[in-house]
Each structure stands twice: as structure tokens, then as C-alpha cells.
Amino acid sequence: MCPTFLLAALASERRPKRLERWGSSGHKLRPAAFTWSRRQGIPTKGAVVAVVFEWAQRFSSTRRGARLARRLAVLVLDEWGVPHDHDVSERVALIVAELAANAVTHGRVAGRDFELRVTAPEGVVRVAVSDAREDRLPVLRSDHGEDGGYGLHLIEALSDRWGTEPRSVGKTVWAEVARKEEGQRV
Q: Is residue 7 part of a domain?
């Protein structure tokens, strides 16, 4: 769905029911946006409303799951107005590929999936990959081997910011890519 529909839904007197229907394909608004609209009343015509795009999906902790995560992240960005061949989309694809591969390789717990969450608050695309392994927090190392250890260096080079967050079960590794062009929706 396009943001125009969402803004129309926010401005409508029937806002709650229309917003419940909005959200196919896993797209959601951050709860803060709903809270703002409830506290401030329904925006009037011409009001500026910050829209946060969000998409999340769980994948099997396999190479196939990691590959699918990368492909779907690029498709979601394209739907949000960031074309496949754009620098932001290409950087996000590489970041998702690396974070998903790390989740499958280092964060795998038998029978547990990993989650990919892509959000686009104003001016940034944020990618977060969560897995169930809490005892192995990623660390940027300088002593990488011949065949590996370069992944977080790649994340460091491709993203504008990155980090980790502990969860009740497992951890989340996230990276942000700044959007440099103003003509895009996301």
C-alpha cells in the first residue's frame, strides 16, 4: 500500500477500521504513530504525519532462509520506493546477506528461526536481525582468518551505524543506512 492511502486513513473519521485493514504484506506502523494520532486527534487535511515503514519476517536458520531474507528485503525496499539498483538498496542487500549469514552460522539454535526486521524512519533504513543465541555477541575483530572473520568489517564499511542489543532470548544485530536522496518515499 502507498503512504497516500495511510494518510487518507488517518484523516478519515473511520480511521481505526481502515488502519486495521492496512498492513498486508507485513507492513505496519510503529505503535508510536497510532499513539500520536489518538492523543492529538485526527490530523486535518494538509497536516504532516511522519510515516514509519516497517516489515518483519521470520526465516529458517538455513542458507536458504538467509538468501530469502536478502531477496525479500530488496523487494520490500522497492515497494517502498527505493529501486533495486539504488545505492541504498544495494548496501542494504549486502548488509542483510551478511547479518543473516551470521545468524545462520554463529547464532543458530536447533529448532529456532531468525527474524529480519526492516524499518524506514525518516532519512534512514534500519535492518535488524535477531537470533536465539545469546552467548555469542558479535565483536569486530582484527585477527580474522583466511576464510572468515570479515563480516562485521563489511557491515562497518557499508552502514552508517551498527550495533547489538541483547534480548530476553538471544540478541539483535542492527545496521542503519542513511537515505541520501530526498525524492524517495522512504
A: yes
